[in-house]
Design brief:
This protein is α/β, with parallel strands linked by helices and 387 residues long. The protein is built from 8 helices and 15 strands. A 5-stranded mixed β-sheet has the order 8-9-10-1-11. A 4-stranded antiparallel β-sheet has the order 4-5-7-6, with no helix packed on it.
Length: 387
């Protein structure tokens, strides 16, 4: 004769009761489980962005390596030897002053006193991580550094307006310290910065390959700030503060390919320029590739004001064999490209639009955002003798 203990009977009772309950309410249990898993996933993804009030997440569009991180990001973590003010004049930053030899080929830069890296050590010229192609760089002592140029260049101080870190590190001299850099292969995906002043927020810089992905990240709260030229995609989004600002160092430009048979005609290029109704466009009208904030800006250069009669006159002189042209454009300028297409078609042209993911090697006309250099001497960029 065998006996079953009371404890064993209880275990069997509860086991059968549990199985019966699961069988009866299995659909509800599955739904509840899925809801909990989904909620946990979104909490894991979004909670860090919602709950961290002392964080600022900023989105940037583009693929960058450690060597190509934008200067305005690195300037949070460190300073340059020399910088430029809002009018483009050279002013000292880490440098206290600098001298130039009579032949213009040798610059000596002297550091300010009491400069300190983020690791607490003093800033000395032997610590500076600097490399300028074709320039011989020598630390004369711990406070003076010499730059020997192959040829005199009056704008050389602008080449020293680049963030300076301690050699073989990301220790800088700025208000923020780089504490982490996340990469996928060679592409930088995130930079984490902590402030010297604990009252200031921590900063995360996140990089996205396309503007569409960056805008989506802004909408779901993955980032809190984004600089975008595609304002229309964001203006009507709820709980989003959109501010329109003019960037004095950027210019929206149409580049004409003069090697193209159609665009080799000066009359055609002028006709296209006269036919665009610029007063109907957003932003501040530019007169050339020099910023209006620069000391070298000239407001009296020739302008191509909106003039349909003059445009049609020049277009007739162009005597095109093929009235079909293609306007290539970067994705963020799609709406502007459509407006220009309408203006150009008023001349009798058949205009095709082509969206580009990057700067194409071949095009007829290209609509893009051009970054303006600080140096007003742009001979190397625009003169016909330059390759």
């Amino acid at each position: 004769m065998s006996f079953v203990s009371t404890r064993t009977r209880r275990i069997k009772f509860w086991w059968h009761l549990t199985l019966a309950y699961l069988k009866r309410y299995q659909i509800r249990i599955y739904i509840t489980f899925l809801v909990l898993v989904t909620a946990s996933y979104f909490f894991y993804k979004l909670a860090p962005n919602v709950l961290r009030n002392n964080y600022v997440s900023i989105g940037y569009v583009g693929n960058y390596t450690l060597d190509t991180i934008p200067t305005n990001i690195l300037s949070l973590a460190t300073k340059s030897l020399i910088t430029q003010d809002e009018n483009g004049h050279n002013v000292a930053s880490l440098a206290s002053y600098w001298t130039v030899s009579p032949d213009g080929r040798t610059y000596v830069v002297f550091l300010k006193d009491n400069l300190v890296w983020h690791d607490g050590t003093s800033v000395e010229t032997t610590d500076l991580s600097l490399a300028i192609s074709g320039v011989e760089i020598t630390a004369l002592n711990n406070k003076a550094i010499q730059f020997k140029l192959p040829n005199p260049i009056s704008s050389f101080p602008q080449a020293l307006n680049t963030p300076v870190f301690k050699v073989k590190s990301f220790y800088g001299t700025g208000d923020y310290r780089i504490v982490g850099i996340s990469k996928v292969d060679d592409s930088v995906k995130k930079i984490s910065l902590h402030p010297k002043d604990e009252k200031k927020p921590k900063v995360e810089i996140k990089f996205y390959p396309t503007e569409e992905q960056a805008i989506q990240a802004l909408k779901i709260g993955e980032i809190k700030e984004l600089s975008s030229s595609n304002v229309k995609a964001l203006e009507k989004w709820p709980n989003l503060n959109v501010q329109k600002k003019i960037a004095p160092d950027e210019i929206v430009t149409i580049f004409y390919n003069t090697q193209d048979p159609s665009f080799s005609s000066k009359e055609l290029r002028q006709a296209l320029s006269f036919s665009i109704n610029k007063d109907a466009l957003d932003g501040q009208l530019a007169t050339g590739p020099i910023s209006y904030s620069s000391w070298a800006y000239n407001a009296n250069v020739k302008r191509y004001e909106y003039n349909t009669a003059r445009a049609k006159e020049l277009f007739a002189k162009a005597n095109l064999k093929d009235n079909k042209i293609t306007l290539s454009y970067v994705a963020t300028l799609k709406d502007l490209a459509q407006k220009i297409k309408t203006d150009w078609e008023s001349l009798g042209l058949n205009v095709a639009l082509k969206e580009e993911k990057g700067i194409p090697k071949d095009f007829q006309a290209l609509l893009a955002v051009d970054k303006l250099p600080a140096d007003p001497d742009q001979y190397a960029l625009w003169h016909s003798t330059q390759k």
